[in-house]
Amino acid sequence: MALSQSLEDYLEQILITKMEKGVVRVKDIVERLGVSSASVVGALQHLEKDGLVRHERYGYIELTEKGKKRARCVYSKHSAIMRFFTDVLGIPPEVAESDACSFEHFISPLCFQRMLLFMRFALEGKKPAWLEEFHRFIEKSGKGNGKKTERKLKGGRC
Amino acid sequence: MALSQSLEDYLEQILITKMEKGVVRVKDIVERLGVSSASVVGALQHLEKDGLVRHERYGYIELTEKGKKRARCVYSKHSAIMRFFTDVLGIPPEVAESDACSFEHFISPLCFQRMLLFMRFALEGKKPAWLEEFHRFIEKSGKGNGKKTERKLKGGRC
DNA sequence: TAAAAAAGTTAGGGGAGGCTAAAATATGGC
DNA sequence: GCCATATTTTAGCCTCCCCTAACTTTTTTA
Question: What is the pLDDT of residues B71-130, one digit of tens each?
């Protein structure tokens, strides 16, 4: 059963709110996703029809078993991609977070599996010498500090 | 000037067709993107209004300088992401292609820059021992061959 | 406990970006 | 040169997903 990127986001935020607060209301999702409450209600109706969510009028939002499974699937991708970006590529959490938010919806199973494999290879146990070296390599290439990066971006293709 | 994912795709395919065939017609884009010709015409009108494309009725499609720049920007991201997936993560080209097609629209400048840096670090010159080792690691984890992977996917989270 | 505030819902609308069907224009075969 | 076919364009429609405004229900507060 396919789900749009948008509905996956709702599902994921319901899961996260549940984990953080214990209960989930429309308002929580409004705040987390920055959409109107009307949009949240609309999405909930759709998710309820698909059997992913339970929601009584004016009550709490609950994930069904099916919904929980789907939400965890999205969230686990999010977390893994996030970790790959921060721990391997050395990207600061805020940026990694926003990239992960997009990629989680599109990444293929194989690509996801390879990222996991790469992390098992590179991050399990002691940090290997080559990864240390790469992180020093980042430092060196970024020294300047602001000026150089700025010029680079202007001169480059993108 | 922001451009939707969809319009970036049109722009990119115009560039690629131009490179491969020398001239670009509506039909080429219809075939490459798998959309109707009406959709292509609609997109062209939008791109023309933004000064990214020139197009006379029933004639060839041309990129303006501005359009070329934008298209190259998307395409260069596509190529780099593609290369990262195939050469670092060892993902087969068809899968990498499809992942790159999504990521190219969302990747942040910093994340893109780090991928480039990682490739310079890992792929410039002779293939380093640790990368060789990772690629053997993939082989090992994937031996089985179909059966094992199948079971793994079923048992796993996603 | 009644009024005010907050939260949730419904109704209606708009833009983006697809589609089909039909009309207009170009092109190739005879 | 003329007709058949291919290509392009227009018109009109649909879905998705967001919005605002108005209304209902719940919660808080005086």
Answer: 999 999 999 999 999 999 999 999 999 999 999 999 999 999 999 999 999 999 899 999
Asked whether residue A142 is domain-assigned, the answer is: yes
Spatial distance between the Cα atoms of A122 and A135, rounded to a whole number of angstroms: 13
Q: Give the residue with minimal CA–C1' separation from D16.
A: A4
* Residue A151, domain member (yes or no): yes
Q: Is the pLDDT of residue A148 over 70?
A: no
Q: What is the DSSP string of B126-158?
A: SPPHHHHHHHHHHHHHH-S-HHHHHHHHHHS--
pLDDT at B141: 87
Neighbours of A51 (CB within 10 A): 12
B10: domain range? 5-70
User: Average pLDDT, whole number, for chain A?
Assistant: 92
Q: Name the pLDDT band for A146 (thresholds 50, 70, 90).
A: very low
- Per the domain annotation, does A152 fall within a domain? yes
Who contacts A107 (Cβ-Cβ below 8 Å, separation ≥6)? A77, A81, A115, B99, B102
Is A121 within a domain?
no
Q: Residue B99 and residue A121: Cβ atoms within 8 Å?
A: no
Domain count within chain A = 2
Closest CA to B158 of A97, A98, A9, A112: A112
Give counts: helices (H), strands (E), chain A. 8, 2
A37 pLDDT above the threshold of 90:
yes
Interface of chain B toward chain A, CB-CB under 8 angstroms: 72-73, 76-77, 85, 88-92, 95-96, 98-99, 102-103, 106-112, 114-115, 117-118, 121-122, 128, 130, 133-134, 137-138, 141, 153, 157-158
CATH of the domain at B10: 1.10.10.10
Residue A150 in this model has a pLDDT that exceeds 80: no
